[in-house]
């Protein structure tokens, strides 16, 4: 199984000092059977104490404060991870809605992930649901057809959406990036009462030119009877492979945002992220993204800013 060395640096620079920065990070490798963290080192400006907790979704959250005045904050993650892949091929599953109902009916956490978040979308996704779902189809086949529909009918274009772009807007102009495609797929599948959740992480280069490789990425996991949570990547129209490294899961991007926080101080900010992924043979893929942020006035609400950046960071 492949081993990847992932170096991820998020850097915030301010044109004047800010203070009392309070932050939450979700850049720890997710604990699951499909991957094994061999090493993880976290370096943050000022070397603050980091309180790590596990949230409702099973994500590790790190919380830290930078109380003194500073003009720069750097969050650096060095991760070595072995990906193990899936033990069974989802395409071979024949389980249908009868089996799904039995597994979901007494599981509140699964039921929670069958609800459409944008209620007005129920009618708008109906035609797509009718196209991808026929009576008697296995759950896995529906999921696979949904990913294929998005891959075929939506244009992959960077820079035209933000973290605030809604699934309804994506459905209207049928363009976007991985985060957008994941959110649309979630609404379609949840409308069919198939439990589905958002996943953030990395897609490591597989030397086949997959969209978003070598950077942060987003995809979807669905609950398939007999298999449990199973990942599929609508941006690349593939079941998740051993080239996907998972960081966090949740209802949507907000549950998985890599960084969010608040600070005090009127400052203009610049924000950049560097991600490199190295193979065992020494081959390295690097990606650098710079994001222009709006100037802030008085006390800033940084969660919105950081989430916007993290969304851009994932949209590869």
Q: Which radius of gyration do the C-alpha atoms yield? A: 20 Å
Query: Structural class of the secondary structure composition?
Result: alpha+beta
DSSP helix count? 8
CATH class of the largest domain: Alpha Beta
Q: How many structurally independent domains?
A: 2
SSE ordering: EEEEEHHHHHEHEHEEEEEEEEH
Major beta sheet summary: 8 strands, antiparallel
Helix fraction bin: 10-25%
Named at the architecture level, the CATH assignment of the largest domain is Roll
CATH fold description of the largest domain: C8orf32 fold
Keywords, separated by commas or semicolons:
eight-stranded antiparallel sheet, 2 domains, five-stranded antiparallel sheet, alpha+beta, 23% helix, C8orf32 fold, disordered C terminus, 316 residues, Immunoglobulin-like, 8 helices
Task: Provide a compact summary of the structure.
With 316 residues, the protein is an alpha+beta fold.
Summarize the SSE layout with pairings.
Layout: E1 3-25, E2 35-44, E3 51-54, E4 60-66, E5 70-83, H1 97-104, H2 108-112, H3 121-124, H4 126-132, H5 139-153, E6 155-156, H6 167-173, E7 175-176, H7 178-191, E8 196-203, E9 215-224, E10 228-233, E11 238-239, E12 244-250, E13 259-264, E14 269-278, E15 284-292, H8 302-314
Parallel strand pairs: 6-7
Antiparallel strand pairs: 1-4, 1-5, 1-13, 1-14, 2-5, 3-4, 8-9, 8-12, 9-10, 10-11, 14-15
Helix pairs in contact: 5-7, 6-7
General description of the model:
It contains eight helices and 15 strands. It is α+β, with helices and mostly antiparallel strands and 316 residues long. The chain has two domains: 3-83 and 258-314, Sandwich (Immunoglobulin-like); 90-255, Roll (C8orf32 fold), CATH 3.10.620. Strands 1, 2, 3, 4, 5, 13, 14 and 15 form an eight-stranded antiparallel sheet that branches. Strands 11-10-9-8-12 form a five-stranded antiparallel sheet, with helices on one face. A two-stranded parallel ribbon has the order 6-7. Helix 6 (167-173) packs across helix 7. The radius of gyration is 20 Å and the shape is globular.
């Amino acid at each position: 199984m492949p081993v990847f060395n992932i170096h991820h640096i998020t850097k915030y620079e301010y044109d004047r000092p800010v203070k009392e920065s309070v932050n939450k990070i979700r850049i720890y490798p997710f604990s699951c059977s499909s991957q094994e963290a061999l090493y993880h080192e976290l370096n943050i400006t000022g070397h603050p104490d980091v309180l790590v907790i596990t949230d409702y979704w099973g994500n590790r959250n790190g919380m830290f404060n930078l109380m003194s005045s500073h003009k720069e904050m750097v969050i650096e993650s060095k991760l070595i991870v072995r990906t193990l892949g899936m033990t069974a091929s989802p395409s071979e599953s024949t389980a249908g809605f009868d089996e799904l109902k039995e597994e979901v009916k007494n599981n509140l956490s699964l039921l929670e992930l069958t609800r459409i978040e944008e209620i007005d979308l129920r009618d708008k996704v109906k035609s797509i649901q009718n196209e991808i779902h026929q009576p008697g189809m296995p759950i896995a086949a529906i999921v696979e057809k949904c990913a294929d529909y998005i891959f075929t009918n939506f244009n992959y274009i960077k820079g035209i959406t933000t973290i605030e772009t809604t699934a309804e807007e994506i459905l209207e102009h049928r363009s976007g990036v991985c985060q957008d495609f994941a959110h649309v797929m979630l609404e379609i599948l949840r409308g069919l009462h198939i439990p589905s959740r958002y996943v953030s992480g990395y897609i490591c280069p597989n030397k086949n030119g997959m969209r978003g490789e070598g950077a942060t990425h987003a995809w979807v996991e669905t609950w398939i009877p007999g298999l449990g949570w199973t990942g599929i990547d609508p941006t690349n129209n593939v079941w998740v492979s051993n080239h996907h490294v998972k960081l966090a899961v949740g209802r949507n991007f907000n549950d998985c945002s890599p960084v969010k926080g608040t600070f005090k101080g009127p400052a203009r900010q610049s924000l950049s992220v560097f991600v490199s992924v190295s193979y065992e043979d020494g081959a390295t893929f690097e990606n650098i993204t710079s994001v222009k942020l709006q100037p802030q006035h008085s006390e800033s609400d940084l969660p919105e800013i950081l989430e916007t950046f993290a969304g851009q960071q994932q949209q590869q």
